Amino acid sequence: MDSIFSDRITDVPRSFIRKILKVALDPAIISFAGGLPNREYFPAEELEKATNAVFRIHGRDIFQYSNSEGYLKLREYISEHYRQKNKLDIPVENILITNGSSRD
């Protein structure tokens, strides 16, 4: 037995996305592939401050699952933000918090 995998797995093609991402991890490479923004533009300090504030306010509760529409306080904040900044009345029940990912 040469492999722990079945014979049919040898016919599965390698992931093109996986190959792109492997090359894109090299800091000397500037990738124009979708979904790979320049890491220099990530707002790391701002995200660190926001994360610390969330932990300070909510502690371990932040790790719990929420309802499928998303965290209510965040949805209320977004609704109020649109009301104040854009003069738009978007009810909280019309706001959904989502996320996304890519799988290859």
Give an account of the 3D structure.
This protein has about 100 residues and is mainly α. It has one domain (about 5-95). It is about 40% helix and about 0% strand. It contains three helices and no strands. The protein has helices at about 15-25, 45-60, 70-85. The radius of gyration is 21 Å and the shape is elongated. The two termini are about 30 Å apart.
Contiguous runs where pLDDT drops below 50 for at least 5 residues = none
Largest sheet: none
SS-based class:
mainly alpha
Q: Overall mean pLDDT score?
A: 84
Percent strand: under 5%
Backbone CA Rg: 21 Å
- Percentage of helical residues? 25-40%
Order of helices and strands: HHH
Overall 3D shape: elongated
By DSSP (H or I, 4+ residues per run), the number of helices equals: 3
The termini sit apart by 28 Å
Number of strands: 0
Count of discrete domains: 1
List the helices and strands and how they pair.
Layout: H1 16-24, H2 44-58, H3 72-86
Task: Describe this protein with a few key phrases.
104 residues; mainly alpha; 0% strand
In a nutshell, what does this entry contain?
By secondary structure, this protein is mainly α. The chain contains three helices and no strands.
